[in-house]
Amino acid sequence: MSRTAIDTSPPRDRNDDFSDAVVAARRTWTGTSIPHLSGRAVPAAEARGNVEQFIGHAQIPVGVVGPLRLLGDFEGTYAVPMATCEGTMVASYQRGLKACADGIRVRVLRDGLIVWPILTFDSVDSAIAAGRFVDAERARLVAAAEATTSHGKVTALDWEILGRRLLLRLEMTTGDAHGINMVTKAAGAMTALIQGAAMTLLHGHDVEKRATRRSWRGKWVVAEALVPEAVVVSQLKTTATALADLWTTYQLAFSRMGSPNHAIQIANGLAGIYIATGQDAAYVAESSVGTLSLEARGGDLYATLDLPNLHAATVGGGTGKGTAAEGRSIIGAASARELACVIGATLLAGEINLAASFLGDDFVAAHERLGRNRPMDGPRRPGS
Q: Which residues are catalytic?
């Protein structure tokens, strides 16, 4: 269960949603103490180990959405913080969660971090011989890798040949940490036992912070939701058939452009949650590879979001410091797998609402209403 138990949406004031009173009410609604998110300065010392030549902390607006009703591997209701400068984004996810009030079911299908060291030899035969050494000495290589950490275990060790180069694939569990440094250190200890390489690149054939269609790593998360016909019509202002037709058109366009990302704009939610909870935001590049599906089941909408490359951590890096620690406390996830499920469910809700907005005038109208930095009153600026 999540630490946060909520059954209402965040408080709002249609006259002035940025008044001190309504902001204070939303802070109370999160169910946790958030002094740094509320404005208290974060001590400079808390940045040690996360940045060099420190000068201060970036201030990015943080909104909160909920309740998210999560089903599947983890069950409960959650509030989800998002850091963003894009007006309308938080409101879009809030509307999506409202449409998915019956719950979003999420499963974690796989959990492991992979690195692909490359070892260069003087000939193809030498590279093949090194690969056969890996097969023969697998137990010793695994033991050397696991000796570097008390948290990670090797779950796969494979190899292939690329010309005169040996490509290794080392996969390890990393607990609740992201674990890239953990797995890289383990790879270094393992490759040190393979003799004869002219060059060893621990981040050689790596997908580190780049999108790929071939090699999945991190947490493979699948989210699904069934939105009743009455909700599709009354809240999303469309039909399940129209949404399914829209999605067929988008899939064709995504195939034409060759994109590995067959969702709409999951990078929005990923970046917002990552920054709010202290994840390494550059992993948006990998994690945004995914596939959305929108299907009509009678008048109901059935939606799934498949994320084979989702990165999430609840320990290490910047996750336990300053505003990030408070952002994680708002969610209340006790493990990295639980956090990944919360992220996957939130992203699916946002995709459903965004797809619906493209079928009407909501998308442009919402940006005009919420996403423009124009004065509250007085004449419009030229070009606004």
A: 86, 280, 367
